[in-house]
Amino acid sequence: SQQGEEDPQALSIQEGENATMNCSYKTSINNLQWYRQNSGRGLVHLILIRSNEREKHSGRLRVTLDTSKKSSSLLITASRAADTASYFCATEGSSNTGKLIFGQGTTLQVKP
Amino acid sequence: EPEVTQTPSHQVTQMGQEVILRCVPISNHLYFYWYRQILGQKVEFLVSFYNNEISEKSEIFDDQFSVERPDGSNFTLKIRSTKLEDSAMYFCASRPTRTAQETQYFGPGTRLLVL
Hints:
Number of helices of chain A: 0
Distance between the termini of chain B: 37 Å
Strand content of chain B: over 45%
Number of helices of chain B: 0
Radius of gyration of chain B: 13 Å
Radius of gyration of chain A: 13 Å
Oligomer: heterodimer
Helix content of chain B: under 10%
């Protein structure tokens, strides 16, 4: 598989529930970022976690990073219908050019 | 809040034609990028640009593609002779520095359709 693979590919939950998305990657990284994309729209940056960090919070978002397993998770707590979107992880490697490698994404549907 | 802007939002062109996609990065940013996303697929890196030269490019970025920063504000992607498979959403991004804690700010994208 390629760098930055998310699972599940699709997730459907009820409003108020928590949503967890996972991302795995293959090579060493400087940081890992999560982006959100509403259907057919641009990419919105959600959160960045550096390779020396293990956990980060931003509002209802919680991101973990396990560099030994080369994996990350994004938890959205108390989901809302407006959270319906695709979520992508993206890794920045050590090339120093800032190139991001994106995963395939998880499509989240939050039902009201 | 400063934003990356892109024009046009949509472009339809005939196969073999040249297209230029335009981006205005955030004004104090130094690093610029183009990515593309074929419908239903993941976002793919095309090229990074710093100090008026390409710093890295992907295998997708062949001789048909070129980038330019013609003035202090615009950053363009040119596709010399478009192919059907160039149909995609093209995103421009910028960031102020290359330190590991800096995020990339993406524009809204240009949807290119090659007929």
